[in-house]
Amino acid sequence: MERYNRDLHTHGIDEYNEYKDTSSTGRDFSFGLLLGIVVGTVAGLVFAPKSGQALREDFSDPVGMFEDGKEKLVDSIKQKKAEFEEVSRIKKMDDDTLELQKAAIRSEAHDSNVIDMSKL
Questions:
Q1: Where are the beta strands (DSSP E) in the chain?
Q2: Rg value, the chain, Cα
Q3: Which of 19, 55, 77, 113 is the 20 to 30 Å CA partner of 61?
Q4: 3-state helix, strand, coil in the chain (%, to 5)
Q5: Which residues, 6+ apart, have CB-to-CB distance to 82 below 8 Å?
Q6: DSSP state of 2
Q7: Which residues, in sequence order, are CB contacts of 2 under 8 Å at separation 6+?
C-alpha cells in the first residue's frame, strides 16, 4: 500500500491510497500502560521512606497500616483544633483587655476634663 503524499495529490493525482496502520495502536497503548504500572510500582518501592522490613510488615497487615494512618490523621486534627482554640482564647482575651483599656482611658479623659474649683 502506498503512503499518502500531499504534494503528489495536489499536483493532479486523483486517486490515492491512504496508509492506515491500526493494528499496533491498541497493542502499543496496552504495552505502555503495563510498562507505566511496572515502572511506577518499582519507583514507589525504591523511593519509599521505610526500610524493607518495615515495608514487608506493612504489606502483611494492610488494615493495621490504614489504622495507623487514621490515628495519625485524627491526632493531627485534634492538635490543629487545640491550636485554633488557643488562638481564639487569646484573641478573645486580647479583645476583652482592649475594651478594659479603652474604658480606663475614657474614664481618665473624662476625669481630667473636670476642673476642681476648690484648688483655684
A1: none
A2: 39
A3: 77
A4: 75, 0, 25
A5: none
A6: P
A7: 16, 17, 19
Q: How far apart are CA 118 and CA 70, in angstroms?
A: 76
Indicate whether this model's pTM tops 0.70.
Answer: no
CA distance linking residue 48 with residue 57, whole number of Å = 14
Structure confidence by residue, pLDDT tens digits, 82-107? 999 988 888 888 888 888 888 888 88
On the CB side of 108, CA atoms within 13 Å amount to: 6
How remote is the C-alpha of 60 from its chain's centroid? 29
Nearest Cα to Cα of residue 1 among 22, 14, 16, 23? 16
C-alpha cell belonging to residue 103: 474604658
CB 4 within 8 A of CB 19: yes
What does the block give as the cell for 114? 473636670
Tell whether the model's pLDDT for residue 73 goes beyond 80.
yes
